[in-house]
Design goal:
This protein has helices at about 20-30, 40-50, 55-75, 85-95, and strands at about 5-10, 15-20. With about 100 residues, the protein is α+β, with helices and mostly antiparallel strands. It has one domain. The radius of gyration is 19 Å and the shape is elongated.
Length: about 100
């Protein structure tokens, strides 16, 4: 199921821990010292890492948020998605559906 996701947005108490390509998330968590075990669903592993149950987990998540904020401030702005304009949709509808 994880492989079907294009993007992944992980929050803990409303703070971003990760936002980006799902395919890059395992390497990202590994780079912070949280490698996903073999044969474990990455989403399950991430959820276990970002849940805050005690002081140790709260501290861990705070570090993750700080790392994300640092990375986010150094990343280039995301490319605007290429969406079809209304005219392009109308032209497609007319040409493909014969609604002229």
């Amino acid at each position: 199921l994880f492989a079907l996701f294009d993007s992944l947005y992980l929050l803990s108490n409303g703070r971003t821990v990760y936002f980006g390509k799902a395919a890059d998330s395992v390497a990202y968590f590994s780079s912070m010292g949280f490698p996903c075990p073999n044969y474990m669903n990455p989403t399950d592993y991430f959820m276990r890492q970002i849940i805050q149950l005690d002081d140790a987990s709260t501290s861990r998540v705070s570090r993750m948020v700080d790392v994300w904020l640092t990375m986010e401030n150094t990343m280039p702005a995301p490319k605007r998605p290429d969406y079809a304009t209304q005219d392009e949709v109308a032209a497609y509808t007319e040409s493909r559906l014969g609604l002229e």
